[in-house]
């Protein structure tokens, strides 16, 4: 009877019910966080339109005003201190994001993730659209744009702890680095899509560069409300093994029994109420800080994210100023940095899975990134081929450690053995790590805005210094991993003993 089924149906039913739910959850959370980053990216593309070199443009004869140098700029960004104003707008978002992140994880442990994510995405869509409406409402107040960005930064803190907690609920440790490395490409995919969408409208009506991404993230919020499944137990699926070296059921494993996607959970999928209710008390903030490795990786991410977010917010303007591209071309070129970031995140996850050295993998990439940043600043704009190559390499080396820490490392620490099976620590641990990193994300663009008037060389020296500090902060963990490889202590995946 089964042989008469269509090939497509045979393929569908060859995978277990658990595998389909895992794959569906991975896809949904990928889509959700892609929309978060998609809505953050437009400001970096629009900067070069809000303030540009008006002397190279033909001034319309019917335009009032006497300033021939700033007639094409958007007030208040038409002043000499425009870089400081850009820095203020960036930091309104990033400081609010950094502060809110420390509280977001605590709320995420106590509020259903589906409602939490839905509310966050709907509000983020609202504030993203409000920034773009400033163009149509002819608003020229720096306070308006700073306030809207601050509120957007606050509501966007709902995203990261919630999606990592959701994925951590569905996937165990065995292949977490690789799976989450691939999954974490949502950051770069969101940045790329945000750049391309914003680039379509930036030169004609820059307000739409924000309104369209705002509508997209609000739409994914509605999708989240109707389809997200927070935990395997909610639909009768088997929970993952968090402390085994090998995943009991990897993503899309072939079904080894008669259970199929269309079958009911049955007794084989029922979870003992005694085991699932065990250790369900949410962890405290101080308790999460005491988990071995949380402090080191949090501080490392502070400097790693400083570098990554400086590129996120300032790379298009740097390319426009140094290589003299127009805003759309600079935005399109900057997406290559994110393409490299996708490769870097996947490679970092795969290598750390195979070696068991999360800290060592990050450290090696950070060490190599420092000279690459120096070379990019000095030779990166010599030719188109050099620019493309250096952007891809720098993107991989800068975003690789950042991606690994915010995904696999956070999930490992959030399901650490010292928690004795407490599954409600994941969101808090993720929020602490990413919240600390977000302090660096706020400092990077702020420092770039202050330093860039003195020359782009000084900005890159700041980035290289941050890169080296990030590496040094992992030295203790790297030392312990190396000792484990040399036989001084048992070699283990993840962070069983740090």
Write up this protein.
Its main location: endoplasmic reticulum. GO terms for molecular function: glucose 6-phosphate:phosphate antiporter activity. Keywords: Antiport, Endoplasmic reticulum, Glycoprotein, Membrane, Sugar transport, Transmembrane, Transmembrane helix, Transport. Residues 28-483 form the Major facilitator superfamily (MFS) profile domain. It catalyses: D-glucose 6-phosphate(in) + phosphate(out) = D-glucose 6-phosphate(out) + phosphate(in). This protein has helices spanning 7-13, 17-40, 42-50, 82-110, 113-136, 142-155, 159-170, 176-183, 185-201, 208-227, 273-277, 285-289, 294-322, 327-355, 358-379, 384-414, 426-451, 456-472, 475-485. It is globular, with a radius of gyration of 23 Å. Residues 244-279 and 491-498 have low confidence and may be disordered. With 498 residues, the protein is an all-alpha fold. The chain contains 19 helices and no strands.
Question: What would the keywords be for this entry?
Answer:
498 residues, single chain, mainly alpha, transport
Q: What is the overall shape?
A: globular
Sequence of secondary-structure elements: HHHHHHHHHHHHHHHHHHH
Q: What share of the residues does DSSP label as strand, in percent? A: under 5%
Helix content: 55-70%
User: How many distinct helices?
Assistant: 19
- Poorly predicted ranges: 244-279, 491-498
Tell me the distance between the termini: 54 Å
Mean pLDDT over the full residue set = 80
* Rg over alpha carbons: 23 Å
Offer a quick outline of the entry.
It is a multi-pass membrane protein. The protein has 498 residues and is mostly helical. It has helices spanning 7-13, 17-40, 42-50, 82-110, 113-136, 142-155, 159-170, 176-183, 185-201, 208-227, 273-277, 285-289, 294-322, 327-355, 358-379, 384-414, 426-451, 456-472, 475-485.
């Amino acid at each position: 009877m089964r042989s008469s089924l269509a090939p497509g149906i045979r393929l569908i039913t060859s995978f277990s019910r658990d595998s389909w739910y895992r794959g569906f959850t991975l896809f949904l959370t990928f889509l959700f966080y892609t929309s978060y980053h998609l809505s953050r990216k437009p400001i970096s593309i629009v900067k070069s339109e809000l303030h540009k070199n008006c002397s190279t443009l033909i001034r319309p004869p019917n335009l009032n005003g006497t300033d021939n140098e700033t007639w094409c700029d958007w007030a208040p960004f038409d002043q000499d201190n425009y870089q400081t104003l850009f820095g203020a707008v960036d930091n309104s978002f990033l400081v609010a994001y950094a502060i809110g992140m420390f509280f977001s994880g605590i709320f995420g442990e106590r509020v259903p993730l589906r409602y939490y994510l839905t509310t966050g995405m709907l509000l983020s869509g609202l504030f993203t659209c409000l920034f773009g409406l400033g163009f149509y409402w002819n608003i020229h107040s720096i306070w308006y744009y700073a306030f809207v960005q601050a509120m957007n930064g606050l509501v966007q803190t709902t995203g990261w702890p919630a999606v990592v907690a959701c994925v951590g609920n569905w996937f165990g440790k065995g292949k977490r680095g690789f799976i989450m490395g691939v999954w974490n490409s949502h950051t770069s995919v969101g940045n790329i899509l945000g750049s391309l969408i914003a680039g379509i409208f930036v030169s004609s009506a820059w307000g739409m560069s924000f309104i369209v991404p705002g509508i997209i993230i609000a739409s994914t919020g509605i999708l989240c409300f109707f389809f997200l499944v927070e935990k395997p137990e909610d639909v009768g699926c088997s929970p993952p093994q968090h402390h085994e070296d090998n995943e009991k059921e990897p993503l899309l494993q072939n079904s080894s029994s008669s259970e199929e996607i269309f079958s009911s959970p049955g007794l084989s999928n029922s979870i003992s109420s005694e085991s699932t209710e065990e250790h369900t008390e949410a962890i405290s903030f101080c308790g999460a800080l005491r988990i071995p490795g949380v402090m080191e990786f949090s501080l490392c991410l502070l400097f790693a994210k400083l570098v990554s977010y400086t590129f996120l917010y300032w790379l298009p303007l740097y390319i426009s100023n140094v290589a003299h591209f127009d805003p759309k071309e600079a935005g399109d070129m900057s997406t290559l940095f994110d393409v490299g970031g996708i490769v870097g995140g996947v490679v970092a996850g795969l290598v750390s899975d195979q070696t068991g050295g999360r800290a060592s993998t990050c450290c090696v990439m950070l060490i190599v990134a420092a000279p690459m940043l120096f070379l990019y600043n000095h030779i990166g704009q010599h030719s188109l081929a050099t620019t493309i190559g250096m952007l891809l390499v720098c993107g991989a080396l800068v975003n690789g450690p950042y991606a690994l820490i915010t995904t696999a490392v956070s999930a490992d620490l959030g399901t650490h053995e010292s928690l004795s099976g407490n599954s409600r620590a994941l969101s808090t641990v993720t929020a602490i790590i990413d919240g600390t990193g977000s302090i660096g994300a706020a400092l990077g663009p702020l420092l770039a805005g202050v330093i860039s008037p003195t020359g782009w060389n000084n900005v890159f020296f700041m980035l290289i210094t941050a890169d080296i500090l990030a590496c040094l902060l992992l030295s203790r963990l790297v030392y312990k991993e190396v000792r484990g490889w040399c036989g001084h202590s048992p070699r283990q995946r993840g962070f069983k003993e740090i």
